[in-house]
Amino acid sequence: MSSDTTERRFDVERWVSYRRPSDVQVSPDGALIAFVVRPVSRTSERWESAIWVVPFSEGEPRQFTSGLWQDECPRWSPDGSRLAFLSDRVDRGKLSVYVMPRDGGEAVRVFDQQGELAMLSWSPDGRWLAVLMTDPETEEEKRRREAKEDQRVWDSDYKYQRLWVIDPETRQGKAISPPDRQVRGYAWAPDSSRLAVNTSPTPKVDDIFRETEVAILHRDGGEPEPLFRLTGLAEDLIWSADGEWLAYRAPAGRVVHGEYVYARRVDGGDPVCLTPDYPGTFEAMCPLERGRALLAVAFEGLEATVYRIGWDGRRESLLPAGPAGTFHGAVTASAAGDRLAGVWSDAGHAPEVVAWRAAPDDISLKMPARARTALSGIAPDELAPSCVIEWESDPGVIVQGLLVLPTSYREGERIPLIVQIHGGPTSLWSNEFLGSWHDWAQPLARLGCAVLLPNPRGSTGRGSAWANAIFGDVAGGEFRDLMAGVDALIARGIADSNRLGVCGWSWGGYMTAWTITQTDRFKAAVMGAGLCNLISDNSLGDIPSANLSYFERSPYEDPEPYWERSPIRYARQVRTPLLIVHGEDDRRVAASESIQMYQALRALGVECQLVTYPREGHGFEERNHQRDLLERILGWFSQHLS
Fold it and tell me: Does the keyword Protease apply (predicted)?
């Protein structure tokens, strides 16, 4: 294994600082593509973002906004003459709504309030803008805070996220959503007079795992018209072109994840599943052809695909031929639906903007040839090769995963193997670029390690049954799937059984902790933002209701199943050196979960190091912390697997 510290630090800087695009928006006429690039600065500790524009067919991308601020959420007006976006250019950290001419020029601020803004969109007629805004601090709240009269009464005085409608000509806005509902998402009706919203009773994240409601709001205000309720969230609301139907993604089983696509008549009736028994998972969706169809990104195994879905449920692939790779977020299209673009990567290409025509003579081109940007500065020949692999776990249970090998690997050579477990557990590893502070396969491969990225039971991408397979058996089948993958790579002559590592973030951190309590085969482990006590996590994390996707009852009603699958219960069985990393302000998984595991292993004499990061939540934002995190992980495995 490579242990050159100077080279490792150079690599870490690249993995942390490369530029990457997001939020791709095709102009209505299909001529231009707007998108966000972050980071703009390779040296600043602030994560500035800029809006860029690139022609669909030929021509170089250009920076549309300066990049001195946080510019995000670009949205074309329906006639394509203007671009609206959010920016904090006047007051750092406080976004306002701006509108800018298509060809550039001065950006005009059309909405300035104190609350946090998100999810900007134009009305179909181009006369209005809608945006979600969180209630700002009141003068009385500010006075109390400054006077340190800031005691908190839990589950009270919520700051709701509300739906505002803005007139960009008068620069006036109005909140139209109910005062006691949190708006999670919305969609304009084709006639611009109504909006569909999905709401929950409170702003607590946990609400999306419980009962939510979809309702109709009138642009000018008034009482909402409830449509339906469901367990989980109706995501990516889309109106049909005639305004009679509403489509959305929603759960198909106990796991609260938008697996299938449904449609309902706006005037009532039962939901119609447009994708029954689909063997994958739908991850993002937007209107196509102004609501005449749906444009959906789905995962089938480890590959992404793009579908045109009709309101009758008919699916048509819109993806170019060749290895599919991964789309990051939604794919968007021109008004006619014939030009598409999105952010794409695969294991051998960093994320870039790709564009293609939805025509038989164009979709035959392989995806990398459709790249319209080259922002990352990371060449494909710098990246470690990868392949999709399968293995048998329990009899008849076939598991899929991605294997990344060092560029120097020679067939028949046994090398260290590190298993990185994904979070979720309702998530997946896909054929995507895997080099960042959070995705460690490429950096680890540069150490000379093979990296296995498994999608065990409970993962998405293989239909509802696979995602729901861990109900009542948390960590059970998952652990067997992981270990079977390790054994398969040993049997194939790739992995050195004496140099095995395991790591993961969030649920992957939990599974890492669980794994080293169940076996001593691993010589090093990294637990990132993980949980070790399922009972305490239920009280201290912000999504306790998610546990009911995997357990029959809450731990207050039946604690034993939770305690039985808590790694801390088996801490005395750990022999593997463990590095634990956690953000101190993590609300998803409290840092106390990592502290519990550290204190237990320290008391038991097991080699263990705990590193916590001030101000960081469940995902790290500060560049120095991202650098330190990745460098520590690489150093830990280099030390213990050499």
Answer: yes
Question: In whole angstroms, what is the distance from residue 417 CA to residue 404 CA?
Answer: 10
**Cα–Cα distance between 481 and 452 in angstroms, integer?**
12
Other beta carbons within 10 Å of 227: 20
Return mean pLDDT, the chain. Answer: 93
The helix (H) or strand (E) run that includes residue 161 is strand 161-167
Q: E-assigned strands of 277-414?
A: 281-288, 293-300, 303-309, 315-317, 326-327, 332-333, 339-346, 349-357, 386-392, 398-404
In DSSP terms, which residues pair with 583 in a beta bridge?
Answer: 613
Based on the number of CB atoms within 10 Å of its own CB, is 226 exposed (0-12), middle (13-18) or buried (19 or more)? exposed
Q: How confident is the model at residue 521 (pLDDT cuts 50, 70, 90)?
A: very high
| CATH fold label, 380-641 | Rossmann fold (3.40.50)
For the stretch 201-259, pLDDT in tens is 999 999 999 999 999 999 998 999 999 999 999 999 999 999 999 999 998 777 766 68
Nearest to 383 by CA among 350, 412, 409: 350
Beta-carbon contacts of 121 under 8 Å, excluding residues fewer than 6 positions away, are 75, 129, 130, 131, 186, 188
pLDDT (tens digit per residue) in 58-97: 899 999 998 888 999 999 999 999 999 999 998 888 999 9
**243 with 191: CB under 8 angstroms?**
yes
Q: How confident is the model at residue 52 (pLDDT cuts 50, 70, 90)?
A: very high
Q: Give residue 609's pLDDT.
A: 99
Nearest to 534 by CA among 462, 468, 597, 623: 597
